[in-house]
Amino acid sequence: MIDVATLSVIRRWALREQLSIREIARRTGLSRNTIRKYLRVGEAEPHYAKRVSPSKLDPFALKLAGWLKTEAGRSRKQRRTVKQMYVDLQALGYGGSYNRVAAFARLWHEQRLVAQQTTGRGTFVPLAFGPGEAFQFDWSEDWAVLAGVRTKLQVAHFKLSHSRAFYLRAYPLQTHEMLFDAHNHAFAVLGGVPRRGIYDNMRTAVDRVRRGKERDVNARFAAMVSHFLFEAEFCNPASGWEKGQVEKNVRDARHRLWQVVPPFPSLPDLNAWLEERCVALWHEIEHGKLPGTVADIWTEEKNDLMPMPRPFDGFVEHTKRVSPTCLVHFERNRYSVPAPYANRPVSLRVYADRLVVAAEGQIVCEHQRLIERNHHGAGQTVYDWRHYLAVLQRKPGALRNGAPFLELPAAFKRLQAALLKQPGGDREMVEVLALVLHHDEQAVLAAVELALESGAASKTHILNVLHRLLDGKPAPAPVTSPQALKLSVEPQANVLRYDQLREVRYAS
Questions:
Q1: Are 346 and 397 part of one and the same domain?
Q2: Does residue 25 sit in the same domain as residue 77?
Q3: pTM, rounded to two decimals
Q4: Distance between CA 399 and CA 425 in Å, rounded?
Q5: What mean pLDDT comes out for the span 73-81?
Q6: DSSP letter for each residue of 105-130
Q7: Is 498 left (phi over 0), alpha (psi -120 to 50) or beta?
């Protein structure tokens, strides 16, 4: 075969020095036809036909191409890897190497991309954002030790697109109320609200993805956007690079925060630590595009953010019916409601950390929200004994074994133990408990403790002490008397006085 150097010499002799083909053939030892062919083409570099060699994979090429086409239509998590296909080909009798199978798969994917004209998917356009223009949001899953238990958490990530200031907050779930609470905290820490927010097509924001950029946005999410006065934009499906800054922040946070996170007794303690660490990292991380740290650029961008309005009332409302036992059910747990609302519909407002029950336009009660990962248990019941006082007044006997009254304060339990030893003690104890409906509970407890200390545990005495406490009058000073009283004039025993009285009576 002729090489590039020989072809260069032939072209120089023939075209520049005007040597004959016979002379060039004599000098090079090549045939005259070969020399004429290369001079006729006029190329400065020889081309050779691609060598085609048989492969052990040839009998299985159609089978492998069919597998690759099938796997390309499946989701990423369900696809077979090339190594798995290699093992399956070996089961069919393939005796070649894995490298040949991998090379075939690479070539197949390249040809498929060319056929679909999608080779541009691997290229991106750098984006630039002005101060206060946009923020990006995303969720991630991470782990932390809470109260001694390794717990999986859903972490909300916010990042200002200009200054790259970021904020993280952890939650047990990715629900609407958690999303709304995260925005309230993020805008407070970031110092204001940008003009746009960039999201993926998460279910808590988008009900349906339509053609192009059209979305059916969830009503509650739209209400939050309207409250904070920013414009919500959504990425194309499976196009995470459209919010690449926060995607990168999710990866960076794993080694900056989650690999060094210490154990905490509760989730609020963890979130307080996350907020503190985020702000500290702003001062440590260089911006990269602009001179200075993230904190330096954020200080300038903060002036372009809209001031933070009042927090968004981010609850999700459910209509519930109170059971005959004065309970409402939510997420397999049960929460007590005041007895007058038993067997009636109420509105349950679900927040990230609490539940609020409303009826007839008024707040009825509030409970701390319980969230359990175990989906096989019976759930928990949260009682408030005050909710059952109306029932007790009609059924005082329920006080002895009523489940809600197992959580009575210690002073009430001691008083109950003393009163139940007396006839009618149930009724009297119920009347004492009913005092909390009309007076401050701490004042009633103080009156009960004073009555117990004095040794006069009765309703009458407790009422007397309570009124003195409410009126601000001090307790009367105790009366002290000697062991034996002494008279200044000792009486004398004189029976003659009775005879004198009789004589005066008869005379009259």
A1: no
A2: no
A3: 0.69
A4: 11
A5: 78
A6: HHHHHHHHHHHTT-GGGG--------
A7: alpha
The residues pairing with 78 across neighbouring beta strands, listed in sequence order, are none
Domain annotation covers residue 501: no
pLDDT-derived band at 193, boundaries 50, 70, 90: very high
Sheet holding 327-330, edge to edge: 327-330, 333-336, 381-382
φ, ψ of residue 246 in degrees (nearest 5): -75, -30
Beta bridge partners of 156: 139, 169
Structure confidence at residue 15 (pLDDT): 81
Q: What is the mean pLDDT of residues 219-231?
A: 94
CA–chain centroid gap for 142, Å, is: 11
3-state secondary structure (DSSP) of residue 119: helix
**Terminal Cα distance for the chain, rounded:** 175
Whether the CA torsion 188, 186, 291, 301 is positive or negative: it is negative
Which three-class secondary structure state does DSSP give residue 43? coil
**Main-chain phi, psi angles of 157, to 5 degrees:** -115, 130
Residue 62 CA to residue 58 CA, distance in Å, equals: 8
For the cut 70, the answer to whether the pLDDT of residue 3 exceeds it is no
- Residue 354's beta-bridge partner residues? 368
Q: Which of 46-50, 248-252, 298-302, 337-341 has the lowest mean pLDDT?
A: 46-50
Is residue 19 domain-shared with residue 140, that is, in the same domain? no
Judge whether residue 1 has pLDDT over 70.
Answer: no
